[in-house]
């Protein structure tokens, strides 16, 4: 006499998300709000001055002006996601830009070799930051504030009152800096490629997911066995390498490099990332949001003078956006924490 073998109850798989669910999730995303703010600024400014967008220079500047900041913001987002910050990217940009110019003047190396060496130089400078943060256990804010001045001091000592002129830069590189592909500046295409690679690596790879985990809870990540030191080094190396790439793009766009190159742009990079929804406390946000934040910042900087707003108030508006973004992130984080506690108590 055979007995039936009891079978474990099966759980029905969750229903696939509906179109309404997808739309609701899209509307709730932080990046959606930043995109809408960007479009609103663009629409208002264009309505007042149609040439802001509907002109050859206006269309070009819409993509060209933020291109270097987008590259920096992607690197900054990666570092902030790991619950760190890199304040030295402006100095790395300037130092790499000047070093690139000097190599063109003094060595006669091919353009591609010089550009690769410039990016590699940025990676090395970023690794110095990462090593000091990871091994010395000193907060990244302190370390990179120090290297901001160290790298800038090295550049000022090296450059002095000298500067690299456009006549010293190969015409091919300068032509690339002003060229366009499909009516979009070539430098903007470079920033799009950087953004796509950064988005893929942070969203679809194990290393990217581990960086989010480390930023969310460093202690838990360490207990879980994640390679916190390695990921910190990688994050700062990426930030340094992208700052080096930004320095190369700076040479291609402007041609003239002095000791003031990149001065203060590190704060714009942090601002772009934070305004774009990257949590300053780490663990959340996307490089896409940081890129949109860069576009919003640069569009505001270009658009407010058209609205007759003085320079002081332009900076105040940007500062206010940063404060609002940080406060909003804190409120959303606290709300999510309370929701998780309520769900746990209900079980």
TrEMBL record:
Alphabetically sorted, this entry's keywords are: Cell inner membrane, Cell membrane, Membrane, Transmembrane, Transmembrane helix, Transport
| UniProt xrefs under InterPro entries | ABC_transp_permease (IPR001851)
Report how it sits in the membrane. Answer: Multi-pass membrane protein
Q: Where are the coiled-coil regions? A: none
Compartments, as annotated in UniProt: Cell membrane
Transmembrane ranges, per UniProt, are: 32-50, 62-80, 87-105, 111-133, 140-160, 180-202, 233-252, 272-300
Which Gene Ontology molecular-function terms are recorded? transmembrane transporter activity
- Keyword Secreted found: no
One Gene Ontology term, aspect cellular component: plasma membrane
Domain of life of the native organism: Bacteria
The protein's assembly and partners: The complex is composed of two ATP-binding proteins (LsrA), two transmembrane proteins (LsrC and LsrD) and a solute-binding protein (LsrB).
What the protein does? Part of the ABC transporter complex LsrABCD involved in autoinducer 2 (AI-2) import. Probably responsible for the translocation of the substrate across the membrane.
Matches recorded under PANTHER family = ABC TRANSPORTER PERMEASE PROTEIN YPHD-RELATED-RELATED, AUTOINDUCER 2 IMPORT SYSTEM PERMEASE PROTEIN LSRC
Q: What is this protein called?
A: Autoinducer 2 import system permease protein LsrC
